[in-house]
Amino acid sequence: MVKNQRRKASKKDIILQKAAAMFREKGFAATSMRDLAESVGIEAASLYNHIRSKNEILEAICFNVANRFTTNMEGLEASRDSSIQKVETLLRFHIRQMVDNYEEVYVSDREWKHLEDPYLSNFQTQRRSYRKRFAAIIEEGIEKKEIKSIDASTAVLIMLHAISGIESWHRSKEKINGEELENNMVVILTDGLRKTV
């Protein structure tokens, strides 16, 4: 029984990976369960043994990603690092997620609007809460004179948009490696925040 459950779980993981790739490439609306079954290499009817619907797949992808980001944020908020160090750690986490788990992160960032309630409302709330928590770290840094006096919400928006631009790095034929990309982006994004004496 346990082996069978493990087999089902791993098949579901494969389905989620293939779905993330297809949703990124074709978009959620244009991807059919038949397309997905073909990419996994099973009959469409067999797909329903592992997953109830296309919407359930999108829910799983979006919330898997959101929960990873939230767990990382919770650990960071509890740390004693300086605010600028916390921002750098957050940026590195975001960049690595975009490099290593690109398709899932892309889908959760672009296709979440296709979620249905109550999942849609829950996801929107989670996104808003995350951005506020990110902004609060910057505001704390401003108060402690570690970060320049800027609008924290605008800073978060700019940084997250810059990181979503890693999409073009993935498409590039000639590109620096992921570690170089991460280091370059962190320098560029944090130097604009760092308060100098």
Explain what you see.
The protein has 197 residues and is an all-alpha fold. The chain folds into two domains: 1-51, Homeodomain-like (Arc Repressor Mutant, subunit A); 54-191, Orthogonal Bundle (Tetracycline Repressor, domain 2), CATH 1.10.357. Helices cover 74% and strands 0% of the residues. The chain has ten helices and no strands. The chain has helices spanning 2-26, 33-40, 44-47, 54-77, 83-100, 102-110, 119-143, 152-164, 166-171, 178-191. The longest helix is centred in the first third of the chain and has 25 residues, at 2-26. It is elongated and about 60 Å long. Residues 1-7 have low confidence and may be disordered.
Write the layout of secondary structure elements.
Layout lengths: L1 H25 L6 H8 L3 H4 L6 H24 L5 H18 L1 H9 L8 H25 L8 H13 L1 H6 L6 H14 L6
Can you identify the CATH superfamily of the largest domain? Tetracycline Repressor, domain 2
Order of helices and strands: HHHHHHHHHH
Mean model confidence by pLDDT: 89
As a percent range, the share of strand residues is: under 5%
Helix content: over 70%
What's the level 1 CATH class of the largest domain? Answer: Mainly Alpha
Question: What is the correct CATH architecture of the largest domain?
Answer: Orthogonal Bundle
